Amino acid sequence: MTQYGFHFDGTRCTGCKTCVLACKDKNNLPNDLNFRNVYEYGGGTWSQDGAGCWTQDAFTYHVSVACNHCDMPLCMANCPQGAIEKDPDTGEVRSDPEKCIGCGTCAKSCPYGAPKVDMEAMKSVKCNMCADRVAAGKQPICVEACPLRALDFGDIEELRAAYGDDAEIAPLPAADETKPNLVITAPAGAKPVGDSAGEIMNELEIM
User: Partners of 86 in the beta sheet?
Assistant: First the structure.
């Protein structure tokens, strides 16, 4: 078995959302559904010293995230219909539309917000790591479309060997919740998981 995963390079991402739009176009998603999102996380304050001089510690950066095809997917663990499974050959976490009843438990369970409920079809839908493209030897469309090459995809062990094994950054959840197949190169000023100094300033979701 090969477990595929994503690498996100926060030093390159400008928040342009090309990855989001390419995914929406490839999957013919309606306006209210995204499989990949770009978050802008920022914060900081101003302070004045005794001499009247002002300083600031403002920061902001972007994080692009989709389904991480986790080793311990909470969506799969909590689905009451057993409609979610991991592909034994690729590690893809996928939903079976024949079993899915559209209850939304998977969406509520995932700390990354990866599964969504298509309200028209009343089925769970999510990133499938562009399984058709991967089977043809291509990269997922979000990776191929990124103009700054901030995304990479491949065997997770090879990605970790190339980029390290960090999978945490605010505002994402702690990696030990689901063991995501994700590697992150942190941008300058990145804050740790659980940080309270910043907030998601603009979810940058295409609605």
Answer: 93
Mean pLDDT, rounded, for 3-24: 98
- Write out the chain in H/E/C secondary structure: CCCEEEEEECCCCCCCCHHHHHHHHHHCCCCCCCCCEEEEEEECCEEECCCCCEEECCEEEEEEECCCCCCCCHHHHHCCCCCEEECCCCCCEEECCCCCCCCCHHHHHCCCCCCEEECCCCEEECCCCCHHHHHCCCCCHHHHHCCCCCEEEEEHHHHHHHHCCCCCCCCCCCHHHCCCCEEEECCCCCCCCCCCCEEEEECCCCC
Does the pTM exceed 0.90? yes
Question: CB of 121 within 8 A of CB of 109?
Answer: no
